[in-house]
């Protein structure tokens, strides 16, 4: 990740195609030792490619990946009112747990 970050910083700074030595200079400026094998692979993979196009392509691929929230929202559609009642019960249980936790401190804190 640090190699990619240094590579992108160099590109933002105006270096259209940073070399491995350029990336090493950036990393050494902040006290990080570069891994030569990974760095050479990164530079060879990104050689003659437009970073903006790669980022756009990666973003398009990530947009097709389902997130955790979408899966949970799709499940209740088949159940109707039953899932709504279960959600309400869970909320009531959470409130009860919160009350129990607040009683545990007995009005004084650890550092009072």
Automatic annotation (TrEMBL):
Q: Which GO terms describe its molecular function?
A: structural constituent of ribosome
The source's superkingdom equals Eukaryota
The similarity annotation says: Belongs to the eukaryotic ribosomal protein P1/P2 family.
Q: Which organism is it from?
A: Suillus subaureus
GO biological process annotation, one example: cytoplasmic translational elongation
Give the Gene3D superfamilies listed for this entry: 1.10.10.1410
Locate the compositionally biased regions of type Low complexity. Answer: 63-86
Q: Name one GO cellular component term.
A: cytosolic large ribosomal subunit
Q: Which Pfam families match?
A: Ribosomal_60s (PF00428)
Query: InterPro entries in the record, alphabetically?
Result: P1/P2_N_sf (IPR038716), Ribosomal_P1/P2 (IPR027534), Ribosomal_P2 (IPR044076)
Q: What is the lineage of its organism?
A: Eukaryota, Fungi, Dikarya, Basidiomycota, Agaricomycotina
- Name listed for the protein in its UniProt record: 60s acidic ribosomal protein-domain-containing protein
Task: List, as start-end ranges, the regions of compositional bias called Basic and acidic residues.
Answer: 88-99
Disordered: region residues: 63-112
Q: Which residues form the signal peptide?
A: none
Tell me the keywords, alphabetical order.
Ribonucleoprotein, Ribosomal protein
Q: Which CDD domains match?
A: Ribosomal_P2 (cd05833)
């Amino acid at each position: 990740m640090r190699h990619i970050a240094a590579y992108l910083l160099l590109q933002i700074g105006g270096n259209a195609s940073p070399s491995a030595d350029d990336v090493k200079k950036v990393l050494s400026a902040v006290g990080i030792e570069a891994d030569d094998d990974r760095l050479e692979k990164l530079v060879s993979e990104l050689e003659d490619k437009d970073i903006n196009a790669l980022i756009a392509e990666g973003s398009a691929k990530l947009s097709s990946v389902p997130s955790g929230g979408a899966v949970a929202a799709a499940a209740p559609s088949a159940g109707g009112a039953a899932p709504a009642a279960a959600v309400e019960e869970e909320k009531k249980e959470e409130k009860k747990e919160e009350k129990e936790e607040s009683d545990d401190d007995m009005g004084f804190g650890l550092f009072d």
